[in-house]
Amino acid sequence: MKKLRDIMTTDVEICKPEDNVFEAAVKMKEHDCGAIPICEGKQLMGMITDRDIVIRGVAEKRPNSTQVTEIMTERLLTAEPDMTVDEAAKIMADKQIRRLPVVENNQLVGIVALGDLAVHRTTDEIAGYALSEISESEQEHYYH
Question: Which PROSITE patterns does the UniProt record give (predicted)?
Fold first, then answer.
């Protein structure tokens, strides 16, 4: 059975706590992604999403110079590299999340996105279920 370490993206673009919202948005544009982990060293502190920027930044009239830590999502649900793809897909479907940070010894080692699951479909179709069930909602996308 495939493990997350087999499919996760390990070259993850991050922001530092002192980075601002503008810098995060530019990284999202450059790397064509909608979420960037916030790390102090390798320690995962939170995640900033394009939705965080819109809801907690723009809609609350915060300047682009606002630090990412002021609007990031702090309560994160994370996975470990030895978790199976099926387990991750089930968590993502149940919690309606699109990206799952992978941590080992409290350090960010990768990230798994819905696209990764689509490429590595499982025999019981949990990944397909996750892909079909996850949609934008009013809830936060990450949980602790």
Answer: CBS
